[in-house]
Amino acid sequence: MNISLVRIDDRLIHGQVTTAWLRQYPAEVIFVIGDSVAANPFQKVVLQTTAPAGVTVEVMDTATAAAELIRRSQDSRNVALILTRPADIVHLVEQGIPIRSVNVGGMQPHTGSRQVAKSVSVDQADELAFRHLFEKGVELEIRMVPTDKKQDLAKILGFTR
Questions:
Q1: Which of 14, 91, 110, 132 is catalytic?
Q2: Which domain holds residue 101?
Q3: What helix, strand, coil percent values describe the chain, rounded to 5?
Q4: Is residue 98 part of a domain?
Q5: Up-side HSE of residue 7: CA atoms within 13 Å toward CB?
Q6: Which of 72, 75, 76, 160 lies 20 to 30 Å (CA to CA) from residue 109?
Q7: Do 18 and 52 touch, CB atoms closer than 8 A?
Q8: What is the pLDDT along the chain (161 residues), one digit of tens a residue?
Q9: Is 14 one of the annotated active-site residues of the chain?
Q10: Judging by DSSP bridges, how do beta strands 78-83 and 2-9 pair with one another?
């Protein structure tokens, strides 16, 4: 599968994803990846009904997603990966999934987090995961919609090479 988009957005699939991101980064399949979302049957059904016509949504835990991306590596379809936390992307990269860029669209504040951009709050675990991705050469950019100017998350977090 060709990975057309990797996006962190704790809202998962919503209007911006279906109307803006999938136009800019076409995908026939959306993998919604996360252990908690995969364990919630109601949320899985809701997510599967929110996709635009012609787009399949598959909700799975992180380990299953890595295995499926590897198993389907020869599939010619474009896939968008939507996740809620950067640690899940670290797992995918460590399993050999070729991720070159991560779009961070929304990470709401929670206990122990700090706001680093208008729509992005990170805690210590998130920052460590982003640092790991940065050190692997993954671009980390913040944009709510594709027409926004990219903000360099690594620079915001003070990462240097």
A1: 14
A2: 2-156
A3: 35, 25, 35
A4: yes
A5: 29
A6: 160
A7: yes
A8: 899 999 999 988 877 788 789 999 999 999 999 999 999 999 999 998 888 889 999 999 999 999 999 999 999 999 999 999 999 999 999 999 999 999 999 999 999 999 999 999 999 999 999 999 999 999 999 999 999 999 999 999 999 97
A9: yes
A10: parallel
| 107 within some domain | yes
> Which CATH number does the domain housing residue 75 bear?
3.40.35.10
- Residues 86 and 157: their CA atoms lie apart, in Å, by 14
Q: Are 57 and 6 in contact (CB under 8 A)?
A: no
Using DSSP, state whether 94 is helix, strand or coil.
helix
Q: In what order do the strands lie in the sheet with 78-83?
A: 56-60, 29-33, 78-83, 2-9, 101-106, 139-142, 151-152
Asked, for residue 161, whether it belongs to a domain, the answer is: no
pTM: 0.95
47 domain-assigned: yes
Instruction: Please state the domain count of the chain.
Output: 1
